[in-house]
Amino acid sequence: MIISADLHIHSCFSRATSNNMVIDAIAPQAKFKGLRLVGTGDALHPGWLKIIEDSTTFSGNGIYSHKDCDFILTAEVEDNKRVHHLMALPSIEIAHEIRKKIVSTDKEKEGRPRVRMGGAEIMDIVHEYDGLIGPAHAFTPWTSMYKAYDSYMDCYGKKPDFLELGLSADTDMADKIKELEDIPFLTNSDAHSPWPHRLGREFTEIEMEDVSFTSLKSALKKKKIKANYGFDPRLGKYHLTACTRCYKSFDPEKARNSKMRCSCGGIIKKGADYRISEIASWKKPHHPYHRPPYIHIMPLADIISLTYSKGVTTKFVQGIWENLVNNLGSEIDVMIRVPLDDIKEISPDMAFALNAFREKTLILVPGGGGKYGEIKFPENSLDTYM
Predict the structure, then answer these.
(1) Which residue segments constitute the domains of the chain, with CATH numbers given?
(2) DSSP assignment of 97-153, as one string?
(3) Using alpha carbons only, what angle is made at residue 194 by residues 192 and 195, rounded to the nearest 5 degrees?
(4) CA distance 136 to 85
(5) Given phi > 0 = left and psi -120 to 50 = alpha, else beta, which region is 70?
(6) What are phi and psi of 252, to 5 degrees?
(7) Which residues of 80-105 are buried (b: 16+ CB within 10 A; e: fewer)?
């Protein structure tokens, strides 16, 4: 079976995260998005583990279910070099055991804890308990493996179980690095809220024998990733080298010459595109035989917001989003599978907008410095249509 999975989110216990990031809110939104398997996030937080126990039914083999959504225990930790690691764990009991070993104090209340260990030590503990681990958002300029190291061997001393691409990179970018040829790539949302433009904004299609931790582990080992769905990396917050204050983008050489300081006084942050070019083995991607297609998507709510010039979290935008998914299927179905004629019967405006998305005629303004990229219609195209 092919499972759509978003394995990296956060709970209400993480910093800068919505209070609505609880099981009762996440599960129905996951169904709307078309997700079957969702990582719990924050599985090293005892309060969140208690909510998971109280809000789900244990379905066996690492799966905790709520209505039509299956959850698997995942957690993100920050190591002593500020590198972020994503882990998947077999059970709540093991999550408690790992917390005792790597979290330095019971007073740690952050859903994504900082630990006084390096990547290799964290990996050894996770593997001791039969878990999975790999670098989270591997190319972002603040807290990623390739921010701190030039090779995963320098971080872990051995090959990770997977690599998470992050919103600012895709397969074409990552497959310029030879050492990643044998590693499966994951695309996940890193969602901090259950809003439709956050949860499932990136996800991975995985071929699994059944919905279980054992099957997930086997699928990653056998490289059974069938497709990665994610942002065009130009929409990521850290795609281009740019100022973190005014968001002006910079040619990397000019950024270096100005000592990574913008004229406005802000710090210039190296973008994922430039960082990958520094460590790349090839100028063009070399996709290994097992690498699946990377399909560029964007949140449906963002397309609706652009079409009507309304805020993405407004009742107006959410109402149109709900009307489309209630009548036509999951969000991913609406974005790429439902015939445009069917969409036109519900909303001619959205049929036009989604046709522009599918035909790749939308204009993308790349992001950088911590600001997401922007999408625009070609000048006057929407006015002419409407």
Answers:
(1) 2-234 (3.20.20.140), 301-385 (no CATH)
(2) HHHHHH-S-TT---SS-B-SS-HHHHHHHHHHTT-EEEESSTT-SSS-HHHH-SSHH
(3) 105
(4) 5
(5) beta
(6) -55, -40
(7) eeebbbbbbbbbbebbeebbeebbee
What's the token pair of residue 81? Answer: 């070099």
**153 within 8 A of 177, measured Cβ to Cβ:** no
Q: At CB < 8 A and 24+ separation, what contacts does 251-260 make?
A: none
Per-position pLDDT tens, the chain of length 386 = 999 999 999 999 999 999 999 999 999 999 999 999 999 999 999 999 999 999 999 999 999 999 889 999 999 999 999 999 999 999 999 999 999 999 977 667 889 999 999 999 999 999 999 999 999 999 998 899 999 999 999 999 999 999 999 999 999 999 999 999 999 999 999 999 998 899 999 999 999 999 999 999 999 999 999 999 999 999 999 999 999 999 999 998 899 899 999 999 999 999 998 999 999 999 999 999 999 999 999 999 999 999 999 999 999 999 999 999 999 999 999 999 999 999 999 999 999 999 999 999 999 999 999 999 999 998 765 554 44
The Cα–Cα gap between 107 and 64 comes to: 27
Rounded CA separation 113/10 (Å): 12
CA distances for 119 relative to 15, 151, 165, angstroms: 22, 12, 18
Rounded Cα distance between 24 and 54, Å, is: 11
Strand-pair partners of 84: 78
Q: For residue 127, give the nearest of 156, 165, 163, 164 by alpha carbon.
A: 156
Q: Are 204 and 216 in contact (CB under 8 A)?
A: no
88 in Cβ contact with 127 (< 8 Å):
no
pTM of the model: 0.93
- Using an 8 Å Cβ cutoff, are 38 and 71 in contact? yes
83: which 2 tokens? Answer: 């590198």
CA atoms within 13 A on the CB side of 267: 6
Alpha-carbon Rg for the chain in angstroms: 21
Distance from the first to the final alpha carbon of the chain:
42
